[in-house]
Design a protein that fits this description.
The protein is mainly α. α1 packs antiparallel against α2. The protein has one domain. It has 4 helices and no strands. It is globular.
């Protein structure tokens, strides 16, 4: 789903700024059914080039993770 969105974005806007595309990729990321190790790998890949730093990055990580209901 995120890949389709990014492909459509590139097609519509001619590629766009790589940093912006990385932020969009990060915003679309969710853990869903992935094990945490796989999710962390995807998160790290999405962060590279996004220029996110410390607190905003931690906030995004928490947003993407599944919520555990006790």
């Amino acid at each position: 789903m995120a890949r389709e969105f990014l492909a459509d974005l590139k097609k519509e806007f001619g590629g766009g700024d790589k940093e912006v595309l990385k932020v969009v990729e990060l915003k679309k990321l969710e853990q869903e059914e992935k094990i945490i190790e796989k999710f962390i790998q995807e998160f790290k890949r999405a962060v590279r080039g996004s220029r996110y730093k410390e607190k905003p990055l931690i906030k995004e990580f928490k947003r993407c993770m599944n919520r555990i209901v006790w």
